[in-house]
């Protein structure tokens, strides 16, 4: 009976561990409330550099903080992103505290709605992984060069998570057999 209790406790612990990995996150674009602005130079850390350093999953939210009297956020197509075309956005946000749900996998394109800002580099591409990547977070291939956006580098987190799952499973089997 003690073996059965330990196995149930182990399963409950593993469920809680995996459940914590599957919660949606709110990510402040650029990591700060003043990041949605024209980059200081083409050599500086851009929003696409920030995006390349993060993993985005379906269900996560992007949050922008900006002065609504001076700027806005436009969600656009790839073509509009590349041409900085603000005339036909998928969605336009002008409230200064924008929250966008990443509701599907694939690339999302955002540009500034302020005249001339996109052309000066105020734009963002976010590549969203599907929900099936929640447990085994495998990095996508780098973005093609024509995306003009972040190349998402592979991380070691997928390997360490997979190792943790295998070790946990092995311990659970060992405990059940005792």
From TrEMBL:
Repeat found in the keyword field: no
Compartment(s) of residence: Cell membrane
Keyword terms of this UniProt record: Cell membrane, Disulfide bond, Glycoprotein, GPI-anchor, Lipoprotein, Membrane, Signal
MF terms (GO), sorted A to Z: electron transfer activity
Membrane topology: Lipid-anchor; GPI-anchor
Signal peptide (from-to): 1-24
Domain of life: Eukaryota
GO CC annotation terms, alphabetical: plasma membrane; side of membrane
Domain Phytocyanin span(s) in chain numbering: 25-130
UniProt key word Hydrolase: no
Listed InterPro entries: Cupredoxin, ENL_dom, Phytocyanin-like, Phytocyanin_dom
Similarity remark: Belongs to the early nodulin-like (ENODL) family.
The protein's name in its UniProt record: Phytocyanin domain
Source species of the chain: Dillenia turbinata
């Amino acid at each position: 009976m003690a073996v059965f209790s330990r196995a149930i406790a182990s399963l409950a612990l593993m469920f809680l561990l995996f459940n914590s990995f599957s919660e949606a996150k709110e990510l402040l674009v650029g990591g700060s409330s003043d990041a949605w602005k024209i980059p200081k130079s083409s050599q500086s850390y851009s929003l696409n550099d920030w995006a390349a350093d993060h993993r985005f999953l379906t269900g996560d939210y992007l949050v922008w903080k900006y002065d609504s009297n001076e700027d806005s956020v436009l969600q656009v197509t790839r073509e509009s992103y590349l041409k900085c075309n603000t005339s036909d956005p998928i969605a336009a946000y002008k409230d200064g505290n924008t929250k966008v749900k990443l509701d599907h996998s694939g690339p999302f394109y955002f540009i500034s709605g302020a005249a001339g800002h996109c052309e000066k580099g105020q734009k963002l591409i976010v590549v969203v992984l599907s929900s099936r990547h929640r447990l085994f977070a495998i990095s996508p291939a780098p973005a093609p060069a024509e995306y003009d956006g972040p190349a998402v580098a592979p991380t070691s987190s997928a390997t360490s998570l997979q190792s943790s799952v295998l070790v946990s499973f092995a311990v659970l089997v060992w405990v059940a057999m005792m």
